[in-house]
Amino acid sequence: MNEKVKDKSKKNGFKMKSENLDFFYGDFQALHDISLNFESRQVTALIGPSGCGKSTYLRCLNRMNDLIPISRVKGKVLLDGENIYDPSLDVVMLRRRVGMVFQKPNPFPKSVSENVAYGLRVNGIKNKSFIRERVEESLEKAALWEEVKDRLDDSALGLSGGQQQRLCIARALAVEPDVLLMDEPASALDPIATQKIEELIHRLKKNYTIIIVTHSMQQAARVSDRTAFFYMGKLIEEGETDTIFTRPKLRQTEDYITGRFG
Amino acid sequence: MANKQHTKAKTMQSLFFCIATASVGILFMIMIFLFMEGIPLFKIVSPNDFLLGKYWYPTSDPPDFGIFPLILASLYVTLLSSVIAIPLGVMTAIYLAELASPRVAEIVKPVVELLAALPSVVIGFFGMVIVAPFLQKTFGLATGLNLFNAALMLAFMSIPTICSLSEDAVYSVPTGLKEGSLALGATHWETIIRVILPASVSGISTAVILGMSRAIGETMVVLMVAGGAAMIPGSLFDPVRPLPASIAAEMAEAPFRGDHYYALFATGIVLFLFTLLFNIVADFISHKYRQVGEASL
Amino acid sequence: MMDGDKMEITKNGFPDDRSETGEKDPNQTGIKVMKTECADSETEIQKAVKKLQSRRRFTQKFLFGLFRCAALVNGLALLIIVFFMLKNGISAITWEFLTDVPRESMTKGGILPCIVGTVLMSLGGILVAMPIGVASAVHLNEYARPGKMLRIIRLGINNLAGVPSVVFGLFGLAFFVTFLKMGVSLAAGALTLGALTLPVIIGSTEEALKSVPNTYREASLGLGASKWQTIYRVVLPAAMPGILTGGILGLSRAAGETAPIMFTAAVFFTPDLPSSVFSEIMALPYHIYVLATAGTNIEATRPLQYGTSLVLISLVLGMNLVAIIWRSRLRRKLK
C-alpha cells in the first residue's frame, strides 16, 4: 500500500501533491494520512463509495474546507513545491490558481458573459476589450462558444444544465488556473451533457492538471490517466487507470471495482 | 363511524377556513370603519384642499383642515430615519449572516429582537428626556424635540425589522453561489458585494420597505419627540407634526363626530393608505422577484 | 458510514482573516504561472493580481470593521436605553410604588392601577387573539392549497401586520367603543389589542407548525387517522411549545402598545381597580405618556416617569427574554 509513495516521487516532478494529510471535522477524522501526487497535464480520478472522503480531500486542495469553522488540517499540500497551508499564503491567490467546478452547476444570476468575466473583474481587470477576448476564449475552451455566442447578455440561468456546467468550467478557466478540481461535475447531468463534459475534460488536459471526483467508475475509466481509490477516509490504492481497473493490487479495490460493495 | 369522522373532519376544515378568512376580515372592517367615520369630512372640505392645504388649524374658527404639512412631516421623518436605519440594519444583517461566529450571533440576534420589543412609548420617553436636551445643548437649538430627534428614534424602531428580514434574505442565498465565487479567487468581501447582495436584493428591498412602513406608522415616538408644530419644516432641526402624532394628540379633544373628529379619521385613512401601499409594494417585490436559487435542473 | 463527503458550508470561520495576519513578501507567495498558449494575457492577470492584492485585503478589513461597528451600534442603543431607565428609575421602585394608587394628582403614590390594567388588558387581548390566530395558522399551514385564495389571505394578514397602531386605535374607537357601545373600557382595549397581536400569533404559530416534521403527519395519516385527528392529536401537541412562545411574544407586544388604547380603554386617572370589563382603566404605557407630557408638574414627576418606564420595560423585555430562551431551547431540541 505504501508503494505509491516511493513510486517515482521526484522532488519537483509533480504539479501538486499532498503529504500525510489528515483532516478533522471537530473530533471526527475524515481523512487519514493521505499522500498523493498529481502529475502535470494529466487527469487523476478520485473514486470510492460515498462518504469515503474523496470530496473532502478535493476540497482540501483549494482550501475550500476552511469555510467550515470546526475543521482542522494536518500535513502538507504542495503546489509547485509550495505548501498551500503555509500561514503566509493568501488563500485568495491560491484559489485563483486552483480552479474548482462543483457538483451542481452554480452560475451566478448574471449574464453569460458576466459570469465568465467575474473572476477577471474581482482581480481588478477593467480593460473591456481584454475582458471580451478572454470571455470568448474561455467559452471556446469550454466548448460553449458556438451555443451561446448570440446570447452573451442573457441570464446564465436560462441555459440548460449541461450548458451551465460548461459555463462554470469556462468561468474557472478565465482566471487561468494551473489546476482544475472537479467535484462530480456530471452527476447532475443527463448522458448527452455528461458526454460533452467528458470530451471537454479530455481536451483540457493538454493544458491543465485536472483532478476529478466521480462516483461513476466508467467515467473514471474513460477520462482519467491515473485513479486513486478512497475508502473510509483512507487512500487504498493509486496507480495508472488501466492498472487499477484491470489488475488492482488489493482485494478491496477489486471488490469495489467489480461492484461487490459500495 | 367512519362517516361521522369524515363529516367532523370536513366541518373542522371549513371552520378553520372561515376563521382564517375572518382574520383578513378585520382588515376590511378597519377600512370600512375608517371610511365611515372619515368620509363625512369631505362634505365640508374637498379632498384636494384636505390633502394639499397648507394650514392645519382644526380648532380655530373657521377651522383649516389642510394636512399637507403633516404629510410632508411624515415623509421627511420616514426618509431621514431610513437614511440612518437602512445602512445600519443591512450591515448588521450581513454581519450576522456572513461574519459573526455562531456564538456571537446567538447573542447579537436576541439583542436585535429585544430592541424591537422595546415599547415605543419608552423610546419616545428616552428621546424626550435624554436625547432632546443633549441635542439642544450640543447644537444650541431652540428645542431638542424636532425632526432629527424623531427620525433618530424611529430609526432604532425600524432597524430590527430591516435587519431580521434582510438577514433571512442573505442567509438563504445558496452556498453554491458563494463557493463558486470564492473558488474563483474572489475575497469574502467581493463575494458579498458582487454575488450575495445581488442575489438577495429582492429580500432586502422588501425588508427596507417594511421597515419604512413601520416608521411612517409609528405613533408614540413622533407624538412625544417630533415637537408637534404643524408647519412645513425648513431645516432638520425644526419641530414637525407627522400624521400619527396629529391623530393621537387631538383625538381626545375632538368633539365626538364633529368636523375635527372626522378630519382625524380622514387623516387615519391617508396614513392607512400609505402603509397599505408600502406593504403591497413589498409583497409585490417578494413575489415577482423571487430570490434566485441554485440552478434547477 | 459517516458522510463526511458532502459537508454543508456553515457561515463564518473565514480563512481570509486568518491568512491576512501573517503577511510576507508577496513575491514569495506570488504566482508561478504555468506557460500555456496565451502567455501575454497571463502576465496581465498576474500584474493585476499583484497590484491589487494588498488593496483588496485592506478593503475587506476596513469594510468588515464597519459591519462589526453597525452590529455594535444596535447593542449600544439597547444598552444605553436600558441603562438610563435603570439608573434613573431604580430609586423610584419601592413596595409602595408597586402597590399603591397614584396620589396628589399623580405626583405621589404608586402605579398599581396601571399594572393591573395593563396585565388584564393584554391578557384579555391574547385570549381573544390566540384561538383565532392559531386556527388561522392551522388553515394556512395544514389545509390551504397554494392558489389565489391563499395568496389573498396571506396578503391580507401581511397588511394587517403593517397597519399603524394608531389606526388600530381609530378602529377600536369607531367599532368597539362607538358601534358596539362598549364605551371606553377594558373590553374595548383588549379587543383592539387582540386585533393588533393577531398577525404576531399567526406568524409564530405558522413557524411552530412548519417545524413539526412531516413524518409525524404521514405516520398518523398512515394509521388511518383523519386530517383533523392528525392535527388535533399529533401536530398541535408537537407545535404547542412554539405556539405558546408566540403567545408570550404577542402578550409583550400588547402590553407595550400605547396608541391603540389611548382612545379605547385608558384614561388619565382612575383610583379604582377595574371592577368589570366595562370599566375604564389606567395602563403603564399611557401613564408614562401622560406623566411625561401632560401631568400637572412634569419635572416633579420625573422619578415616577422613570420608575413606570422601568416597570414597563422589565415586564416587556422579561417576557421577551423568556420567549427567546425557550425558543432557542426548543430549536436545539428539534435538531
Report on the structure:
The complex is a heterotrimer of chains A (262), B (297) and C (335). Chain A is of the alpha/beta class. Chain A is built from 11 helices and 10 strands. In chain A, helix 7 packs parallel to helix 8. The longest helix of chain A is centred in the middle third of the chain and has 14 residues, at 128-141. Chain B has 2 domains: 2-43; 47-296, MetI-like (MetI-like fold, Orthogonal Bundle), CATH 1.10.3720. In chain B, 73% of the residues lie in helices and 1% in strands. Chain B has helices spanning 2-38, 47-52, 68-99, 102-117, 120-139, 147-171, 175-183, 188-199, 201-217, 220-225, 243-250, 259-288; strands spanning 56-57, 64-65. In chain B, a hairpin with a 6-residue loop joins strand 1 (56-57) and strand 2 (64-65). In chain B, helix 1 crosses helix 12 and helix 11 (243-250) packs antiparallel against helix 12 (259-288). The longest helix of chain B is centred in the first third of the chain and has 37 residues, at 2-38. Mean pLDDT of chain B is 91; it is low at 293-297. Chain C is mostly helical and 335 residues long. Chain C has 2 domains: 2-56, no CATH class; 93-334, MetI-like fold (Orthogonal Bundle), CATH 1.10.3720.10. Helix content of chain C is 70%, strand content 1%. In chain C, helix 8 runs antiparallel to helix 9 and helix 11 runs antiparallel to helix 12. Chain C is globular and about 85 Å long. Chains in contact: A-B, A-C, B-C. At the A-C interface, helix 2, helix 3 and helix 5 of A face helix 1 and helix 2 of C.
Strand element count of chain B: 2
Structural class of chain A: alpha/beta
Numbering strands along the chain, what is their spatial order in the largest sheet of chain A?
Answer: 6-7-8-3-9-10
Hey, which two chains have the biggest interface?
B-C, 95 and 95 residues
Main pleated-sheet profile of chain B:
2 strands, antiparallel
Question: Radius of gyration of chain A, rounded?
Answer: 18 Å
Oligomeric state of the chains? Answer: heterotrimer
Distance between the termini of chain B: 47 Å
Shape of chain A: globular
Provide the CATH superfamily of chain A: P-loop containing nucleotide triphosphate hydrolases
CATH topology of the largest domain in chain B: MetI-like fold
Number of helices of chain B: 12
CATH class of chain A: Alpha Beta
Helical amount of chain B: over 70%
Low-confidence stretches of chain B: 293-297
Assigned CATH architecture of chain A: 3-Layer(aba) Sandwich
Order of helices and strands of chain A: HEEEHEEHEHHHHEHEHEEHH
Structural class of chain B: mainly alpha
**How many domain regions of chain A?**
1
Number of domains of chain B: 2
